[in-house]
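Researcher: Here's a chain I'd like modeled. Treat it as a single chain, no partners, no ligands.
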Amino acid sequence: MANSSTALLSIVIATKNREFYCIETIKSILSFKSDLIQIAISDNSDTRQVEAFVDSICNKNIVYRYNNSAISSIDNFNYAMELASGEYVILIGDDDSVHPKIIELVHWIKENNIESVCSKDTFTFLWPGAHPNFPNGLIKIPKINDSYHLVDPKKELIKLLKNGLVNYFFYNVPKSYHGIIKKSIMDKIKETTGNYYGALSPDIFSAVCLSLILKNHCVLNYPITIAGVCPASTTSAQILGNHCGALDKMPHLKNRKDNYIWDSLVPKIYSVSTTWGDSGLHALTSIKRDDLKKHFNFYPLISQTIIMNRNYIFKFSIKKSEEFRIERKVNFFVFWMFIIFYSFSLILQKSIKTLKSNFNKKNIQYANINGFSDVFEKIGLLSFYNNK
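Model: Modeled as a single isolated chain. Structure tokens:
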């Protein structure tokens, strides 16, 4: 592993049963040939393929732990973060990667004493077979420039709560998932809550906690990571309608040591949106800021859940939303009028975003992208941090 005195950045990966993609991610990072980057991997797979690969290359910049016992996904993320010894950390998925020039950015962060950096967008890489419309893979390159701005994370969090914790990645909250955080800040979360990550979704849990701990947060208008979508990913599963239903279907609840209690402000529906909502509210409780729940608006969350899963669990979503309304003792007419209002609002927002994307010539996509070497070729190796 990279020595703690020399690892400037730890790239943290929790993996399970996606061995091929995890190995490709490791290869992509090692191609940067930087001794300042440590790769910290917690592997809960059924096979030891990743371990065999790591052993075969014997790279001092990799710290790896294999554990095939019955643990929850959140436990795996916590084990991965515990392995990190870099001054800064970034959590990515086992089918993701980072920009080849990321270490330049970390030098700039350190020189300017910045605690947290994230990007407004990511490069999106659809692995071959992940999306029916792009069977041979695709890379999406958003509109970019080398500007940045500072953000008040607490104010941004309150805006997110008022929008039902929906689509948190569109907000300028700090993120350990696809964002760079000073490791000492992550350690403060663990000191306060007992773990680096809690609830069911590590990304939204840490986004909420970080927003209430750190003071110095910067948002870039240039992506620093490649968000991979492989056929086995939850994003791909959502596209195919396999990531929704009753709570007892949730893989997130498997092998948990606690008796997890779903938050009463979220309908009992298994979906991406409700998982984020529940985890965000649990984060407020864990960090002892239940007072901020007064800002939470559940109407956009329910509307998003119904819209996103309309082709798969529409009737079930309506049924559970009505049960939620009765439990909350909200007037029938008022409740469903708000749901309709926010549904149209969300559809309008998405339509505007799609139109802007279609008419903006700076948004580029390339098909027939087989792996990270193709991705790096398309996004280029131009250093974009020198003007900061």
